[in-house]
């Protein structure tokens, strides 16, 4: 076979195996080769070529039979030839996803004496990668350490393998330095840091709760690999540092650009608006996204919408979502909050109805306060008897007793005034006498209040 064909096939085999494969050389050529080059007989080389073709055609059984035939030559094989037989065996196992067998085959490669250093190093690296595949991280760590001990200056990807091994074992402190080293080496070589390397570093800083450094890594990710998900994560990191204004700026910009479409992120933006005292924006946002069926009209979101309108001093707009939330939940406390909104607007009948429904539903934290509200609503409807009963119930709680008793006195004075006004005065009663009676009623009211 021509020498050029030998080299072409060796290159193909090297690409398939991820290794450097030496080829047969003449005596004159051998003098020009480095000391790492090892001769291989024409017969063995052609056998390996045939085996590789079978493996790539997925004819694994036939390939294995051929491998056994070559290996049966025993002492007739040079160590390097035996190493390459095991090398091709490992590759076949890898393609069959027989990873444990592939690892054992690579051990056999490295067990051969006097084989090139490049073959040993590439076998160690491939073995480590296979150990990652089967989640043998401790074994991968040993392989990578052995690999690093055999080279003066490990490459960036080797440092990364070391960091990944520690990372998978949950040892983030040990993982940090080699991963950072790999990234820095890559940058110094004029390369753009790999995305998955930066992501790994980001996770480590997150696990260590080192949010300032996590932010720095996220800013690099955004610079090299701009994605809305990285911006959202950056916003979350600013939140962890309680820098919610930066979080708001990022999330709002993403929303305006059309990148934020999920209900959770929209509700989060609404909460940020409320936090930074822009409730009108929060209410308009929630209204818009609820109308578009993006944000569900559940109890939690309706309460938030109501709160936004209420804080924006849009009392009338705050009532419908709160009423809907109360109906959905049957929560007595929500009905009491609804009653308060009605009372703020002077909707006495609706307020009384809401309080009664809340007390009936149960779960009201301060029934005494609720009864005070009910009494006020009934009083303003001139239902003095009902109001007095509500205030009496409120007075049973020490926390509201004083206010309730003051209201009771006031109600009693109004009852007395009403009774007086309803009396028919004698026809001979002079206007001055009527004036005197009204004055007495007013004085009684002022004294009780």
Detailed description of the structure:
The protein has a domain at 1-152: Serine Threonine Protein Phosphatase 5, Tetratricopeptide repeat. The chain has helices spanning 3-17, 27-30, 42-56, 60-71, 79-95, 99-111, 117-133, 137-149, 156-168, 172-188, 195-207, 211-224, 228-240, 244-256, 263-275, 279-291, 299-311, 315-329, 332-344, 348-361, 367-379, 384-395, 401-422, 431-448. Residues 1-37 have low confidence and may be disordered. Helix content is 75%, strand content 0%. The protein has 24 helices and no strands. With 449 residues, the chain is mostly helical. The relative contact order is 0.03. Helix 12 runs antiparallel to helix 13 (228-240) and helix 18 (315-329) packs antiparallel against helix 19 (332-344).
Question: In whole angstroms, how far apart are the ends?
Answer: 118 Å
Percent range for helical residues? over 70%
**Which regions are unreliable across 5 or more consecutive residues at pLDDT < 50?**
1-37
CATH structural architecture of the domain at 1-152: Alpha Horseshoe
Q: Could you name the CATH class of the domain at 1-152? A: Mainly Alpha
Layout of helices and strands:
Blueprint lengths: L2 H15 L9 H4 L11 H15 L3 H12 L7 H17 L3 H13 L5 H17 L3 H13 L6 H13 L3 H17 L6 H13 L3 H14 L3 H13 L3 H13 L6 H13 L3 H13 L7 H13 L3 H15 L2 H13 L3 H14 L5 H13 L4 H12 L5 H22 L8 H18 L1
Considering the chains and any ligands shown, give keywords for the structure.
single chain; 449 residues; mainly alpha; Serine Threonine Protein Phosphatase 5, Tetratricopeptide repeat; 24 helices; rod-shaped; disordered N terminus
């Amino acid at each position: 076979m021509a020498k050029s064909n030998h080299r072409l096939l060796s290159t193909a085999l090297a690409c398939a195996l991820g290794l450097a494969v030496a080829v047969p050389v003449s005596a004159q050529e051998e003098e020009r080769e480095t000391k790492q080059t090892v001769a291989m007989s024409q017969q063995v080389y052609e056998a390996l070529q045939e085996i590789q073709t079978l493996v790539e055609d997925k004819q694994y059984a036939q390939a294995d039979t051929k491998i056994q035939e070559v290996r049966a030559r025993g002492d007739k094989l040079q160590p390097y030839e035996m190493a390459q037989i095991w090398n091709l065996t490992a590759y076949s196992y890898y393609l069959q996803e027989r990873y444990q067998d592939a690892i054992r085959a690579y051990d056999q490669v490295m067990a051969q004496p006097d084989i090139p250093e490049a073959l040993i190093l590439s076998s160690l690296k491939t073995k480590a990668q296979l150990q990652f595949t089967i989640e043998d991280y401790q074994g991968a760590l040993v392989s990578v350490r052995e690999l690093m001990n055999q080279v003066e200056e490990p490459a960036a990807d080797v440092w990364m393998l070391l960091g990944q091994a520690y990372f998978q074992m949950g040892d983030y402190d040990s993982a940090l330095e080699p991963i950072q080293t790999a990234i820095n080496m890559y940058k110094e070589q004029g390369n753009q840091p790999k995305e998955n390397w930066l992501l790994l570093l980001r996770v480590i800083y997150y696990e260590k709760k080192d949010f300032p450094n996590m932010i720095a890594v996220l800013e690099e990710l955004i610079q090299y690999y701009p994605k809305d998900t990285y911006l959202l994560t950056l916003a979350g990191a600013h939140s962890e540092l309680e820098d919610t204004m930066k979080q708001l700026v990022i999330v709002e910009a993403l929303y305006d650009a059309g990148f934020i479409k999920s209900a959770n992120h929209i509700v989060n933006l609404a909460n940020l608006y409320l936090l930074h005292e822009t409730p009108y924006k929060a209410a308009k946002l929630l209204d818009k996204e609820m109308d578009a069926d993006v944000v569900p009209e559940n109890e939690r979101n309706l309460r938030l919408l109501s709160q936004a309108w209420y804080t924006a001093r849009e009392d009338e707009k705050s009532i419908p979502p709160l009423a809907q939330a109360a109906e959905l939940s049957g929560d007595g406390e929500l009905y009491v909050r609804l009653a308060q909104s009605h009372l703020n607007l002077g909707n006495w009948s609706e307020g009384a109805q809401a309080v009664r429904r809340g007390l009936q539903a149960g779960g009201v934290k301060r029934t005494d306060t609720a009864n005070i509200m009910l009494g006020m609503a009934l009083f303003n409807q001139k239902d003095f008897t009902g109001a007095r009963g509500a205030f009496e119930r409120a007075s049973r709680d020490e926390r509201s007793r004083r206010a309730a008793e003051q209201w009771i006195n006031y109600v009693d004075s109004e009852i007395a005034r009403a009774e007086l006004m309803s009396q028919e005065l004698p026809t001979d009663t002079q206007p001055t006498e009527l004036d005197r009676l009204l004055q007495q009623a007013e004085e009684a009211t002022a004294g009780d209040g």
